[in-house]
Design a protein that fits this description.
The complex is a heterodimer. Chain A is an all-alpha fold. The longest helix of chain A is centred in the middle third of the chain and has 34 residues. Chain B is an all-alpha fold. The chains are: A mainly alpha, B mainly alpha. The interface between A and B is large, with 59 and 60 residues.
């Protein structure tokens, strides 16, 4: 009953336009006050501080910053030119470019919202100009950015790794194959749509052009290879790799491309700082509510409740998937991971599900949540860039969300798809 | 007022994010050189907390926190103003309590210092909670007028406008 009241209170606050981070904190505050009185409140400050001081989470601002710097130095433009030379000749060429550039860009920034904001601001107007319907342009950008959250590096995966005590590096590796499979499926669905609506192609395929644009984008493509190589080989941790990504982005932008001016750098850093704070405040206030729920023994109650109902691993995975899909409708992914992962982890471990496998399921699942209103930060960003109505975009986006759900089911029920690379490299 | 507070928060965020990146990079270099810095993890973690709360106040000033305006955009006139004011009061109440709790904690920490840097007081590290909360409140009050300005002054009689939102 108490938990239901908490959840209802949270929904009312969110519907009343209270920022989600504050709504989570306020619900936790009321819960703490009603059980422990005024003397429990100083604990609030301690948890809010500790919630924001986790060392692995430092990778978040650094990856965001590296992405912002690369964006300020014309990397988006170069990636788009290369992708255009590579896949632009296919029917609906710009949609193909959007999907492939999005997957490349994800290898630097780790944030789906940053991905949409950076690439969408160039590609959505370009698609509109070439006669693509606006809702389609927004939908394709939005869904490909969401798929990109499972391609390393990934901010939700970093947060999950901390909460579930799972290896962030293994999580990153687990996302590679499902990310590529999902990308190809998204391109196929976009191609079907483009053929039916007779969207244009972007010139013919020319090997010379692929080579020229590749040379121009070479450094930008090399950067993620070096950073991720360093992380995957165990030479640096994810956080240290993120720090090196910042330095490399500055060197490539400033010395190689010579496109980094101080004003742009300042804007990029501020943008990175604000995005970090938005995510980290969510992390800290979710930790507050999460602590309360754990104290009330909710994880144990959930585990024993569900185990009493079924002990089939597949059934439990199905239940967890539905649960996360519903949570994703109302919560931002960072908040959902911090609140829910500690609650379901005892159940996950008891049923013998690999925490890395489960991490990929959670990340992808909550990524889908970012495509489904009312709380859908990626979709909302795409709509605001495209100046399109969120419900119109959602209608077109249904087919792309279906692809993401198909990838989720593949990942859930064919563990070999995410886990074979992990097993090959680390176990 | 908005400009002064904005400038202060922007410079604070710029300095903190630069320091954070620098500490991590210097930490890697020293570790690889075989002379790991003992204070590196603790200082970097504290910088992250500082970036979180000073940055959160800046995000509040720029109205960048994630919220769901879909429902209140369907409301009109006084009801919408009422809901906006109620939401603002919730935010301000929360941060008033956080500021008070944070202040109590910094008082209680007394002479305690950081584990890896005995010359730095733990209360200084924790001070970001009361200060960050107070700055968040200031930011919310400053942009209250901007938020209320988004409410249409002459609501249309029919429902057509609302259905487009």
């Amino acid at each position: 009953m108490t938990f239901l009241l908490l959840f209802l209170g949270l929904l009312v606050l969110i519907a009343g336009s209270v920022p989600i981070a504050v709504a989570l904190g306020m619900v936790a505050l009321v819960a703490m006050f009603s059980t422990g009185g005024i003397s429990s409140l100083p604990n609030l400050a301690l948890v809010l501080f500790d919630g924001a001081t986790s060392f692995p989470l430092i990778a978040i601002p650094l990856f965001i910053l590296a992405g912002a710097i690369m964006n300020a130095t014309g990397i988006s433009r170069r990636l788009i030119a290369f992708a255009s030379a590579l896949v632009g000749f296919i029917r609906g060429g710009l949609a193909m470019v959007s999907i492939s550039a999005s997957l490349f860009f994800a290898e630097i920034s780790g944030s789906a919202v940053a991905d949409v904001a950076a690439l969408g601001s160039i590609l959505i107007p370009a698609m509109k100009k070439r006669g693509y319907e606006t809702p389609f342009a927004a939908a394709v950008m939005s869904s490909s950015a969401t798929l990109a959250v499972i391609i390393p590096p990934s901010i939700p995966m970093i947060i999950y790794g901390v909460m579930a005590d799972a290896s962030v590096v293994e999580l990153f590796v687990a996302g590679i194959i499902p990310g590529i499979v999902g990308g190809l499926l998204l391109m196929f669905v976009a191609w079907l749509y483009a053929r039916r609506h007779d969207f244009p192609v972007e010139g013919v395929f020319k090997r010379a052009q692929v080579w020229t644009t590749f040379r121009d984008a070479g450094w930008a493509l090399l950067l993620p290879a070096i950073i991720l190589g360093g992380i995957f080989s165990g030479w640096v941790t994810a956080t240290e790799g993120a720090g090196l990504a910042v330095v490399a982005a500055l060197l490539i932008g400033g010395l190689v491309y010579r496109e980094l001016d101080l004003r742009q750098l300042r804007e990029a850093m501020l943008e990175g700082g604000i995005q970090t704070a938005v995510v980290m405040l969510l992390v800290a206030t979710s930790a507050l509510l999460g602590d309360y729920l754990t104290e009330q023994q909710l994880p144990q109650r959930v585990a024993s409740g569900i185990m009493g109902f079924t002990d089939s691993r597949w059934m439990i995975l199905a239940l967890l998937n539905v649960f996360f899909l519903v949570i994703g409708l109302f919560l931002h992914s960072a908040a959902a991971i911090i609140l829910v992962v500690p609650i379901v982890m005892p159940l996950v471990r008891a049923t013998g599900i690999d925490p890395v496998h489960f991490g990929l399921i959670v990340t992808l699942n909550l990524g889908i949540g970012q495509q489904t209103p009312p709380v859908a930060s990626v979709l909302v960003t795409a709509c605001s860039v495209a100046k399109a109505d969120i419900w119109e975009v959602s209608k077109v986006n249904l087919r792309f969300v279906a692809v993401l759900v198909a990838v989720l089911l593949l990942v859930t029920y064919l563990p070999a798809i995410p886990m074979s690379l992990v097993n090959l490299l680390y176990r | 007022m908005k400009r002064i507070v904005g400038r202060f928060l922007e410079w604070t965020v710029l300095i903190l994010i630069t320091a954070l990146a620098a500490v991590v990079v210097v930490g890697v270099i020293f570790r690889k050189a075989g002379a790991a810095l003992v204070w590196y993890d603790e200082v970097a973690s504290i910088l992250l907390a500082w970036l979180t709360y000073y940055g959160a106040a800046l995000a509040a000033l720029k109205r960048a926190h994630i919220s769901v305006p879909t429902f209140i955009e369907r409301l009109q006139g006084r009801i919408r103003v009422g809901v906006i004011l109620a939401a603002k009061s919730v935010v301000i109440t929360f941060f008033v309590v956080v500021a008070w709790a944070g202040w109590r904690v910094t008082q209680a920490l007394g002479e305690l210092t950081l584990v890896s840097l005995p010359s730095v007081s733990a209360a200084v590290a924790q001070s970001v909670i009361p200060i960050g909360a107070a700055l968040f409140i200031v930011a919310e009050l400053i942009n209250l007028r901007d938020v209320l300005a988004t409410v249409p002054s002459n609501p249309p009689r029919t429902d057509t406008k609302a259905s487009q939102l």
